[in-house]
Design brief:
Belongs to the transposase IS30 family. This protein is mostly helical. About 50% of the residues lie in helices and about 0% in strands.
């Protein structure tokens, strides 16, 4: 298994890397929100191995094109597109 190399990533990008405390979901709100959105398609305990690539791609497209309040009502896809165009 590869190591994440968070220290190297931080140095190379100038981005601070933080780790949340275990069992502290309030420290990772965006992650918890995304988990909730995924649960709309895959309830807790769902066996993901029964879903093919097309099923997963469908959910990916829906979530990446869904506007988010945390992004000023842009979708993640719109934000990524804007970042890629700006660079």
């Amino acid at each position: 298994m590869k190591k994440a190399n968070h220290k190297g990533f931080g140095i190379a990008t100038g981005i601070n890397v933080y780790f949340c405390d275990p069992h502290s979901p309030w420290q990772r709100g965006s992650n918890e929100n995304t988990n909730g959105l995924l649960r709309q398609y895959f309830p807790k305990g769902t066996d993901l191995s029964v879903h093919g690539p097309a099923d997963l791609k469908f959910v990916e497209q829906r979530l990446n094109n869904r506007p988010r309040r945390s992004l000023g009502w842009d979708s993640p896809a719109e934000r990524l597109r804007g970042l890629l165009i700006a660079s």
